[in-house]
Amino acid sequence: MMSERDRISIREREIRSRRIESQLIGLQAYQNAEIIFVYVSFRSEVDTKSFIRKANEDGKRIAVPVSIPNGKILLPCEISGLDDLVPGTWGILEPDKDRQRLVDSRKIDLAVVPGLAFDHFFQRLGYGAGYYDRFLPSLREDAVKLGIGYDFQLIDRLPVEKYDIPLDGILTDIRLLVRDGVD
Ligand SMILES: Nc1ncnc2c1ncn2[C@@H]1O[C@H](COP(=O)(O)OP(=O)(O)OP(=O)(O)O)[C@@H](O)[C@H]1O
Ligand SMILES: [Mg+2]
Predict the structure, then answer these.
(1) What's the domain count of the chain?
(2) Is residue 110 part of a domain?
(3) Residues 6+ apart with CB under 8 A from 75
(4) Is residue 108 part of a domain?
(5) Average pLDDT in the 2-24 region?
């Protein structure tokens, strides 16, 4: 999945990311959200920077992950915009250390999460460290957990283990899968 994702041209990545972005901002879960947690795209992941800009303009409050490698924990920290970000762990953009504003996970209404692969049972496969499996249970029951990825990343069935947390929806450049009651 990683090499397939790396093979997409920058132009094509942009096109597919824009498609996902425009679907995303049309969702009820987006419209209703006051605070949105969203990963900051790295390498060939679906680009979220343009989404962050747009959500800011729409008056949404944005929290992005700060990873704490010791314990493999993600902390949601609020940013005012992309200018607040600097390269952190592994070069992933994160809010500047001195200016981290921790957000209570229970205030998050929508969480947009990355993945290497997703399946039709709303399961996700990450990078194998369990960061998101530790973070997702801290959200409110009614918060919407949405995975975004390129369509080829959505496969029939993934192997699942006991800590894997299923999502509420999966959005690709071509499809939207949602559980009953979501959007
Ligand atoms: N909540 C948890 N408590 C304890 N161990 C956990 C928890 N969540 C995941 N783990 C463990 O962490 C390891 C990595 O998990 P997993 O393979 O599911 O990662 P992943 O979902 O692919 O990665 P990520 O969430 O970082 O994208 C596994 O051994 C898993 O059992
Ligand atoms: Mg997992």
Answers:
(1) 1
(2) yes
(3) 65, 66, 67, 68, 100, 102
(4) yes
(5) 97
Domain CATH code at residue 34: 3.40.50.10420
Please tell me if the CB atom of residue 130 comes closer than 6 angstroms to any atom of ligand 1.
Answer: yes
pLDDT of residue 67: 94
> Does any domain span residue 82?
yes
pLDDT of residue 52: 98
Stated length of the chain: 183
φ/ψ of residue 85, rounded to 5: -95, 140
137's tokens:
């249970």
- 0.85 cut: is pTM over it? yes
Establish whether residue 133 lines the binding site of ligand 1, counting it when its CB lies within 6 angstroms of any ligand atom.
yes
Find the 162 Cα to ligand 2 centroid distance in Å. 9
- Domain extent for 79: 2-174
> How do residues 32-86 score in pLDDT, each as one tens digit?
999 999 999 999 999 999 999 999 999 999 999 999 999 999 999 999 999 999 9
Beta bridge partners of 75: 66
Looking up tokens 């096109």, which residue turns up?
Answer: 15
In this prediction, residues 75-98 reach a mean pLDDT of: 93
Pairing of strands 144-148, 110-113: parallel
> In terms of C-beta density within 10 A (0-12 exposed, 13-18 middle, 19 or more buried), how is residue 161 classed?
exposed
> What atom of ligand 1 comes closest to residue 114's alpha carbon?
27
Rounded Cα distance between 183 and 179, Å, is 9
**Does residue 90 sit within a domain?**
yes
